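Q: Structure tokens for this one, please.
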Amino acid sequence: MTEATLPNMPEPEYSYIVKLDEIGPKTSALSLSIGGKERRALAKRFDLASIEAVFADLSITKNEGKIEANGMLRAKLHQYCVISSEEVAAKVNEAIAIRFVRREEAPTSAEEEIELAEDDCDVQFYEGESIDVGEAISQSLILALDPFPRGPNADKVAEEMGLKGEQDVGPFSALKALKEQMEQK
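A: Here is the predicted structure, written as tokens:
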């Protein structure tokens, strides 16, 4: 088990450990590329059809105990359509900002929960004297993906399955149904 993993947690599929004493107040540049074995394991973990490529270019800084990684995340992969289960191509080209916080500084109850604005950093907790930038990149990747990918045949399959479309379940769908009933009389 590496210092950056939590007890009782499985080893991450992609790990890139950076020791805290290697990070200074000046920006450290880091370019990462996830290999084939790790991409296959991540695809399995995140229930993706495949991950063809993942690259991250980061600058890491430590200032007054705060550790932040900022940069770009790029990936090419295939997700499964939520309706038809067919493979859907996806690309990620996204700016990322990750703040690493010591586990002991984390809130211990729901009352102490950290409120983050939409444009705030993603927060990764760590223990010991190192951080796992690889796991942080992996988690940033899954957060960057469309949670409800739809393939080109999704509407057709949904219709065949009798699933209602968005227009049929919105707030005015009941009014529409009532109007149609009244017109039939």
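A few notes: Residues 1-6 have pLDDT under 50 and may be disordered. The longest strand covers residues 87-102.
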